[in-house]
Amino acid sequence: MSARALDYWFEFASTYSYLTTMRIEDMARARGITLRWRPFLLGPIFAAQGWTTSPFNLYPAKGRYMWRDMERLCAARGLPLQRPDTFPQNGLNAARLAIAAGADMPAFCRAVYTAQFAEGADISALSTLEKCLETAGLPLSLIERAQSPEVKQALRDQTDTAISLGIFGAPSFTVGKELFWGDDRLDQALDHALRH
Amino acid sequence: MSARALDYWFEFASTYSYLTTMRIEDMARARGITLRWRPFLLGPIFAAQGWTTSPFNLYPAKGRYMWRDMERLCAARGLPLQRPDTFPQNGLNAARLAIAAGADMPAFCRAVYTAQFAEGADISALSTLEKCLETAGLPLSLIERAQSPEVKQALRDQTDTAISLGIFGAPSFTVGKELFWGDDRLDQALDHALRH
To answer: What ipTM was predicted for this assembly?
Structure first.
């Protein structure tokens, strides 16, 4: 673990990861913190808890609140919000593409979250992902590379690492083994990275 | 619903309600907001979701994180934190006493949360509750009053009202029908109360 580095753990289906994805790069840069973008899958983590879908669907009161909370937070930050027809969406191919994008991952991630939560698009659709690659200025050839055994394994490994770090939701942040959960903890996590 | 009023919903077993209880009165007063303290029980709400205990016990990764998060937040705010042997504790009698305390509820609540989370005491024990009454300058005769049918019914009614407002966790805040969940949303809830 290098000094002034923060690992950003996110899942494409996660609403609150939209909030973080749209602001974390500027915030880290302003503090001179190196950011490592770490897509992972919450599905296996939820399944291990016996959940077959998002807790926001399993617990309707919590789900209703989450969408209202998102409305208020997006309005306060000047972020558009359009609730997609399907929630949670299958972010597997988006996550593989993000890994395949390498150094261009941040721009691609912002395009995917914007498509899903600002425009209500279906990010499991190939046509949506193609548009996101275009928005991020990336070649469509990444779609084939995203299906390579190396990329698939990298995403599995990353999810395993998330579990070993005690991650149970998204967005999460780690500085070494210190875990922070939720967009609400982004400032605290960045402060921690600065001091360690 | 009167202007500049905020309802504060809390459950005595809730760790994050400790954070809020210790600061909400000063924050509301500084903004000229009328605060209504509303103890309720999470037990029936959790039971309706099929939970037999706190989600922090049902989901160990989440529980470990919560205690670490509490450590960091308490340290940052200069609040002592001592993890009680039992979690969650049975806060039924504390909640009835809080209602019986009437206008002195805030001081009693701070004493109960301090006993539980700063000193690690068992708040289901009569001896602990007696000390809390003493700390708050209240008569021991409240213990009998707290077992009256009126107080018991008031707590049941309050829990029903919490459910009808969509409350699913503690601490929560409402301004009319607008719901805010978590100590992290206290500022936002107070700002909302000021504007409505």
So the answer is: 0.93
